């Protein structure tokens, strides 16, 4: 029953987050992506989460599979997929995550297989970040390797702003992450969720990185009632049942980790996006779109493209007024420059 419930939860999570994965113009026009398909294990959500930013970056799907052996249904799906000329497969995880047999089955179907994986989920996230950002990144997203909720939110951030995603030990900064940060050389590390120790932020700052932590801490205080002088077990049992009936749903509700997405550090934006956002800020957060070319020095088509990207990132909204658009910032921009 436990195994079936686990698969059900995994399937439900996939159902909710799969719509986030859709092709975007991440590649240079005319240049095909290095991979056509990402394969992850279907019995552990973390590899799927870590793969999400790179799936979006490349505009390719993720296929969760049985980590031990591909079944006949999956084999048929893969054969159909390959008929479109998509044969370059990226397998995420080491041989403990996805077996050698699965790799041999893929090769037997005619796929060209590349495997990226480490001994731990932290190491796997590091290897993926270095694979897809060989020239470094201005911003890196960081989350706890033990907190799937925070990792899922971090994946969304990485997808939205096209940043690499790293996972770390929740108590201190993993050594492989420290090494990866040296190679990626970011200006800013965005920490996501409440599943990490404050020491991690301190470590990052001591290493010279700017940090921004997206999280919300919730404190719940429960007072203990004064016990009666004489124990009435009927009342005690009734009180326990009533307490559990109220406390369990309340605890499940308030125990969810929350973080505010209403504040965005300007470092996560591209250089052109920053210039446009600053121009809007200089106008009090609202500006006519037709004024932006003069304010920024960019052409009208360039401004239009930048505004569309900012809309995708849910940072601005446009309202049609007459023959022009009014552009408004929808989130608070954290300025560090």
Automatic annotation (TrEMBL):
For the DUF7343 domain, which residue ranges apply?
269-329
Q: Does the keyword Transmembrane helix apply?
A: yes
- Keywords annotated in UniProt: Membrane, Transmembrane, Transmembrane helix
**Which domain of life does the protein's organism represent?**
Archaea
Report the InterPro entries cross-referenced here: ArsR-like_HTH (IPR011991), Bact_Sporulation_Assoc (IPR051922), Cell_wall-bd_2 (IPR007253), DUF7343 (IPR055767), WH-like_DNA-bd_sf (IPR036388), WH_DNA-bd_sf (IPR036390)
> Sorted alphabetically, which Pfam families does this protein's record hold?
CW_binding_2, DUF7343
Record-linked CDD domains: HTH_ARSR
Q: Which residues cross the membrane?
A: 233-255
Would you tell me the protein name for this molecule? Putative cell wall-binding domain
High-level lineage: Archaea, Methanobacteriati, Methanobacteriota, Thermococci, Thermococcales
């Amino acid at each position: 029953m436990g195994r079936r419930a686990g698969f059900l939860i995994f399937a439900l999570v996939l159902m909710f987050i799969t719509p986030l994965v859709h092709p975007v113009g991440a590649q240079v026009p005319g240049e095909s992506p290095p991979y056509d398909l990402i394969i992850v294990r279907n019995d552990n959500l973390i590899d799927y989460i870590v793969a999400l930013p790179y799936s979006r970056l490349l505009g390719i799907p993720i296929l969760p599979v049985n980590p031990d052996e591909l079944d006949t249904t999956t084999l048929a799906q893969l054969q159909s997929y390959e008929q479109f000329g998509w044969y370059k497969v990226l397998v995420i995880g080491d041989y403990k995550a996805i077996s050698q047999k699965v790799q041999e089955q893929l090769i037997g179907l005619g796929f060209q297989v590349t495997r990226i994986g480490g001994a731990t989920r932290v190491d796997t996230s590091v290897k993926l970040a270095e694979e897809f950002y060989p020239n470094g990144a201005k911003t890196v997203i960081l989350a706890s390797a033990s907190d799937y909720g925070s990792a899922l939110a971090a994946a969304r951030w990485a997808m939205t702003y096209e940043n690499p995603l790293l996972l770390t030990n929740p108590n201190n900064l993993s050594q492989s992450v420290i090494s990866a940060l040296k190679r990626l050389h970011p200006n800013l590390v965005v920490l996501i969720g409440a599943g990490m120790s404050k020491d991690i932020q301190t470590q990052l700052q001591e290493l010279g990185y700017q940090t921004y932590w997206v999280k919300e801490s919730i404190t719940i205080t429960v007072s203990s009632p004064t016990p009666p002088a004489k124990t009435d077990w009927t009342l005690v049992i009734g009180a326990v049942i009533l307490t559990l009936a109220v406390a369990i749903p309340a605890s499940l509700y308030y125990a969810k980790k929350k973080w505010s997405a209403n504040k965005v550090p300007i470092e996560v934006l591209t250089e052109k996006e920053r210039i446009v956002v600053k121009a809007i800020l200089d106008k009090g957060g609202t500006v006519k779109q037709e004024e932006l070319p003069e304010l920024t020095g960019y052409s009208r088509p360039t401004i239009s493209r930048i505004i569309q990207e900012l809309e995708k990132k849910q940072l601005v909204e446009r309202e049609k007024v007459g023959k022009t658009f009014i552009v408004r910032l929808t989130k608070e921009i954290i300025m560090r420059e």
